[in-house]
TrEMBL record:
One GO biological process term: fatty acid beta-oxidation using acyl-CoA dehydrogenase
Gene Ontology terms for molecular function: fatty-acyl-CoA binding; flavin adenine dinucleotide binding; glutaryl-CoA dehydrogenase activity
Family (UniProt): Belongs to the acyl-CoA dehydrogenase family.
Pfam families in the record: Acyl-CoA_dh_1, Acyl-CoA_dh_M, Acyl-CoA_dh_N
The organism of origin for this protein: Halogeometricum borinquense (strain ATCC 700274 / DSM 11551 / JCM 10706 / KCTC 4070 / PR3)
Chain ranges of the Acyl-CoA oxidase/dehydrogenase middle domain: 127-221
Domain of life: Archaea
Keywords from the named record: FAD, Flavoprotein, Oxidoreductase, Plasmid, Transit peptide
InterPro entries according to UniProt: Acyl-CoA_DH_CS, Acyl-CoA_Oxase/DH_mid-dom, Acyl-CoA_Oxase/DH_mid-dom_sf, AcylCo_DH-like_C, AcylCo_DH/oxidase_C, AcylCoA_DH/ox_N, AcylCoA_DH/ox_N_sf, AcylCoA_DH/oxidase_NM_dom_sf
Protein name: glutaryl-CoA dehydrogenase (ETF)
Cofactor names: FAD
EC main group: oxidoreductase
Amino acid sequence: MLDYVDLESKLSSEERMIRDSVREFVQNEVKPDIADHYVEGTFPTELITEFGELGLYAPNLEGYGLPNVSERAYGLIMQELEAGDSGLRSMASVQGALVMYPIHAFGSEAQKDEWLPKLGSGEAVGCFGLTEPEHGSNPSAMETYAERDGDEYVLNGSKTWITNSPISDVAVVWARDRSSEDTPVRGFLVETDRDGVTTNKIDDKLSLRASITGEIALQNVRIPTENVLPNVKGMKGPLSCLTQARYGIAWGAIGAAKDAFREAQDYATDREQFGQPIGGFQLQQQNLAEMATQITLAELLAHRLAELKEQGNLRPEHVSMAKRNNVRMARNQTRVAREMLGGNGITTDYSPMRHMANMETVYTYEGTHDIHTLVLGKDLTGIPAFD
Ligand SMILES: Cc1cc2nc3c(=O)[nH]c(=O)nc-3n(C[C@H](O)[C@H](O)[C@H](O)COP(=O)(O)OP(=O)(O)OC[C@H]3O[C@@H](n4cnc5c(N)ncnc54)[C@H](O)[C@@H]3O)c2cc1C
């Protein structure tokens, strides 16, 4: 894959080994079938436990049998998965950063012992319920609520656009606790086989088709008070999870762009028109030069984020800048790659259009491009412009 300024030389031997093994796995186990899954709108569920065996869920967390790899290695894993398909990276991001991370950071010892090993191995699947039908970019206006009743909580509300909800064993549901005076947002671990939980699948997506998305409806769902994440209250809970996941997205999007670049570069040297390879025309060389430059700049930002994260100096605003820039880059460059493939570029025989369509979701979820613009605007001026 493209590495124009030799970022390879910055990797430790362990990071290289991890990157290579995930690359090989994606090449052999994912690429042959992923376009079919995309067309069918299915996720290759046999990969769920295989991801676990490879240690791809929350690989940067410590304890509970988790690999505790470097933040750069974690980023490289996300990049390799998304070079296969954004649906694969979404599976690993949600399970690792949005389900295991909050349990690891804010859970009780009993919750960690119960869930982290099962989620880490892929024996159990989790989902993250924050978005609601009427509240996407502004989740703090959420309507889903919990009320204490003796040693139980009763939950009511609905969540939508929830990755993996129809195949999940447990949902981390963010809801307002109406039993406390200031109705703080709290995280509730809701087993999906409880009475009152339904998880309908959303079928009509034109993007991220190789990923299962659904709703979560909660009607008088009773859970024991031990299922509340005890160590966080307020929007800090879900937002800190999103920072972890967005860090992975900032890396992952580069993988999609690199895979599209590789296809375009190969095609440009093979495909002949007017008696020569199309890569011999200046217009196509400009496309390749711009793609390679934009991918390289995005990758440099991702590598710097890894250093800041290792040092404990990574701010959510840094992650907003990288998510915003790198996904926009991938959205633009996958489209250029698609264009360079001419008519063949709109088929599933080549990856760029699949990546391009996926990027519409990635541009929107985990904070839309606009919302990250506002996050940066506030950081740079001190003036919030959200409402
Ligand atoms: C395939 C997929 C999977 C997803 N997975 C999950 C998941 O696992 N868990 C989960 O909780 N959520 C998930 N989401 C939801 C996702 O995070 C939301 O779609 C996203 O936050 C945007 O919310 P919305 O769709 O309601 O759009 P809206 O918030 O209604 O935004 C619509 C448009 O208005 C713009 N806008 C909003 N506010 C402002 C403002 N203040 N200023 C300027 N422009 C503004 C937005 O940028 C956007 O362009 C997923 C979404 C998709 C598509």
